[in-house]
Inverse folding.
């Protein structure tokens, strides 16, 4: 399958009109008449679930507030009405149990989708994710693959402080057996979710509360995006910026600012942290000879540390400067607005890192 | 100190024996004998360094699983702890592939990737052998959800130890099974010790199922786990309840004759206590009953024991002669191949 890069820029011809002050959601996009539809990130995700649940009755959704409440962040809005309470299933607040149950259901022929209201709550289910979901296929000699999608918002929300602001890309990509998907756009989210629902491995599907309202024109026709294929979100020649999820948007902001100073940045979005499209990153670095990695994870043992090490191994001769890492600062997320801003890898820090990589 | 069985189901052994019948009782005795001989030989092979890692033996507890599998069929799923050999044998898995797994060979049940704690069967819906205490309980609950979702009429049986009952997964699973009317059976095999910690030092109540089930609105049974008749009769009732959509919590008061694992000398309990339980060996008791009923002669019993032992020895020979997994298998099956 070929992937057309830059085919789906975020800029849209029109904006979704909120109804009664509420954002538009559900699985129906706004048809634009030229084979495209306008959707938000949450609609794109809902549409992927809707389409795949229609074609495969082994898929069901389980989690806190996913059914009658329509999802804490409305990603599953309307699905209960279409598929009923057996397939859109509200659970008590019991992450460890419903995650383990999803593993048991996957082992007996179903394709569960579980929603963590946020990935912060996945820590309650950590043993089930690591000891059961991630290892089951291997420790059974391939007998029991686990077709399981674990999804929910990841990273900092709006001023929700220490226990509700974790970015978990690095954490879960550490363990063999887990796929880690971390999309930045509605187009990517839909295509990757559909792939996740048709394959047989446990997937950590990391969304972001701050991106649910991001809008994009996407094809009406069905499409899938394979795992391990990255995307260039902005082309450039002077410095490569590697980022996923919300960090892509901060990187694009930084790149726009830097362009005003005549610095041309290429923003590479691997889209899936595991498997990782290393060839795409290396190809970009071969062109720019500089690289900055931006992540919401912590710097120690982070996604940036991994990319940086991989570039040492694979692109050493292409690099004209050390790889720079822009990560969350090493503190639990504070509540105060100014401190939260300073913790996150915001554009001003990315700009400084690019200049460092360019010795400017 | 003998276990209090105040809450146990009253069992009329003669009546249950009659209900099970000659052929079935003989078959159940042979099943228990196979588990016993398989594990005794595995224990020896461990001392000879043919087997490594952990080896948790079920010796003494055979009547519990044997009574339950007698009532399960191809619709039903089951899952257990790291003490998982008996269930695999009762499901009819070949002792050769099981012994080969203990030996770490490519012909093993899970191709040498799991060892003693991780026996599985997709065909038999045997969801394993699990190494984390309490980790298997939601998995078994999920299998019950599948049975309900697909309306298969199947049940799921989740075995756990007394040591797992304080874990959160136990309570979370019971709540969900009761809330959703899942066809789930939970069997606490209370062998009186969680590793070296006596149950009364870990669990706040003596009769776990009896105390906890009402809190979740569930039915419960307690039975003497060394008594095959009690196990068989309890399982019969529990499976019928579960098939009608009512989850059941069960406690088997049992005892392991060996340590927690082969490397545990079990110095935390007295010789007298062990002797007291060994005097009630479930396999010896059924053998005596079979002979008493003239359903089996001493000579036949010896012949059957010889046959079982031969089967185990053949499994050991097979395991010994099998190849180790190829190094190309090292990173195979980290992800699904299809």
């Amino acid at each position: 399958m070929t992937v057309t890069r830059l085919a789906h820029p975020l800029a849209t011809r029109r904006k979704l009109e909120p109804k009664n002050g509420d954002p538009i959601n559900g699985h129906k996009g706004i048809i634009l008449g030229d084979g495209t539809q306008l959707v938000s990130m949450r609609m794109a995700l809902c549409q992927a679930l809707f389409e795949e649940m229609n074609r495969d009755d082994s898929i069901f959704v389980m989690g806190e507030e996913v059914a009658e409440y329509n999802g804490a962040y409305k990603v599953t809005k309307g699905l209960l009405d279409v598929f009923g309470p057996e397939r859109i299933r509200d659970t008590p607040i019991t992450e460890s149990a419903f995650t383990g149950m999803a593993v048991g259901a996957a082992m007996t022929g179903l394709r569960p989708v579980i929603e963590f209201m946020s990935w912060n709550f996945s820590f309650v289910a950590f043993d089930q994710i690591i000891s059961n979901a991630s290892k089951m296929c291997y420790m059974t000699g391939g007998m029991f693959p686990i077709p399981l999608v674990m999804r929910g918002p990841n990273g900092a929300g709006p001023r929700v402080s220490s226990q509700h602001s974790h970015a978990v890309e690095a954490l879960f990509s550490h363990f063999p057996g887990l796929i880690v998907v971390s999309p930045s756009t509605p187009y990517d989210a839909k295509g990757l979710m559909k792939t996740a629902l048709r394959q047989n491995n446990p997937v950590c599907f990391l969304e972001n509360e701050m991106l649910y309202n991001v809008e994009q024109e996407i094809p009406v026709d069905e499409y899938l995006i394979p795992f391990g294929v990255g995307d260039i979100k902005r082309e450039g020649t002077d410095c490569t910026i590697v980022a996923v999820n919300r960090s892509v948007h901060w990187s694009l902001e930084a790149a726009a600012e830097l362009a005003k100073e005549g610095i041309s940045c290429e923003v590479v979005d691997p889209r899936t942290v595991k498997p990782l499209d290393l060839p795409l990153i290396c190809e970009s670095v071969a062109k720019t000879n500089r690289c900055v990695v931006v992540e919401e994870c912590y710097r120690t043992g982070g996604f940036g540390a991994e990319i940086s090490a991989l570039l040492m191994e694979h692109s050493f001769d292409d690099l004209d400067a050390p790889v720079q890492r822009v990560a969350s600062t090493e503190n639990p997320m504070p509540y105060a607005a100014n401190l939260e801003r300073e913790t996150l890898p915001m554009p001003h820090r990315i700009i400084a890192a690019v200049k460092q990589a360019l010795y400017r | 100190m003998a276990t209090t069985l105040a809450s146990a189901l009253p069992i009329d052994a003669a009546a249950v024996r009659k209900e099970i019948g000659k052929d079935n009782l003989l078959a159940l005795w042979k099943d228990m004998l196979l588990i016993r001989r398989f594990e005794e030989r595995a224990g020896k092979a461990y001392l000879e360094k043919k087997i490594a890692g952990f080896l948790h033996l079920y010796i003494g507890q055979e009547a519990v699983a044997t009574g339950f599998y007698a009532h399960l069929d191809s619709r039903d799923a089951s899952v257990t702890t790291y003490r998982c050999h008996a269930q695999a044998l009762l499901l009819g898995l070949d002792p050769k592939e099981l012994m080969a797994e203990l030996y770490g060979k490519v012909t093993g049940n899970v191709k040498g990737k799991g060892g003693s704690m991780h026996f599985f069967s997709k065909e038999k819906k045997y969801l394993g052998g699990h190494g984390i205490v309490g980790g298997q309980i939601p998995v078994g609950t999920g299998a019950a959800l599948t049975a309900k979702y697909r309306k298969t009429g199947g049940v799921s049986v989740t075995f756990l130890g007394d040591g797992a009952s304080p874990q959160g997964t136990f309570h979370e699973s019971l709540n969900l099974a009761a809330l959703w009317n899942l066809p789930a059976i939970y069997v606490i095999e209370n062998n009186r010790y969680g590793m070296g910690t006596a149950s009364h030092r870990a669990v706040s109540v003596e009769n776990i199922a009896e105390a906890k089930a009402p809190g979740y609105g569930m039915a419960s049974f307690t039975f003497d786990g060394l008594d095959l008749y009690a196990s068989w009769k309890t399982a019969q009732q529990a499976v019928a309840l579960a098939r009608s959509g009512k989850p059941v919590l069960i406690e088997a008061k049992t005892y392991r004759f060996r340590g927690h694992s082969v490397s545990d000398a079990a110095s935390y309990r007295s010789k007298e206590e062990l002797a007291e339980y060994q005097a009630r060996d479930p396999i010896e008791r059924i053998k005596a009953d079979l002979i008493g009923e003239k359903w089996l002669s001493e000579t036949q019993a010896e012949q059957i024991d010889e046959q079982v032992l031969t089967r185990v020895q053949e499994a050991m020979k097979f395991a010994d002669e099998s190849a180790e997994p190829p190094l190309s298998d090292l990173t195979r099956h980290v992800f699904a191949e299809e």
About this structure: Chain A touches chain B through 42 residues (CB under 8 Å).
